[in-house]
Amino acid sequence: MALIIRRFSNNDATKIALLLKRNFLEINSNDYPLVQMHKLAAEYTPEKISTQAIFGHTYVAEINDTLVGTGTICPFWNSQTESIILSLFVQPEFHGQGIGSAIMKYLEQDEFYLRAHRIEVPASRTAKEFYLHLGYQLKYAEGIEDENGYIRMEKRR
Of the candidates 53, 60, 36, 49, which has an alpha carbon nearest to the alpha carbon of residue 126? Predict the structure, then answer.
């Protein structure tokens, strides 16, 4: 079972939207109200995913031509020295198999990562431990959540 990670193409947008929807409703709903997760699932349309890929670099992970994960890195508010990682998700049945970590390795080789002094991640409660394991730290010592329920994390290079 060979994992392939490649750059996004517009043909991936619908599959990515479905992947995100599954994670919001099947996984993140364990830590957030289901109503909030339905709202997020509706917001992440194929069009939004394609637009996000214009401003950042989106990668997809595939096994046997099946999309199993995705992640995006963008400049943080058009900064040349800060970047942000967005929408890192893996198909639920592939969680715990190292796919998320493999996608992060690609993101951390991307030019937006390499030029940044600071990389931010708006982590869900669900993903907080994953990012801590990868060396990201809480941006605010108390781990305060923002208005959307994200825990702001960062890594300084």
Answer: 36
Amino acid letter at 82? E
- Pairing type for strands 118-123 and 137-138 reads unpaired
CB 75 within 8 A of CB 83: yes
Alpha helix positions (H), the chain = 13-22, 34-43, 46-55, 99-107, 111-114, 128-133
pTM: 0.94
How does pLDDT run across 14-35, given as a tens digit for each residue?
Answer: 999 999 999 999 999 999 999 9
3 state DSSP class of 87: strand
- CA–CA gap between residue 53 and residue 73 (Å, rounded): 9
Phi, psi of 96 (to 5 degrees): 80, 10
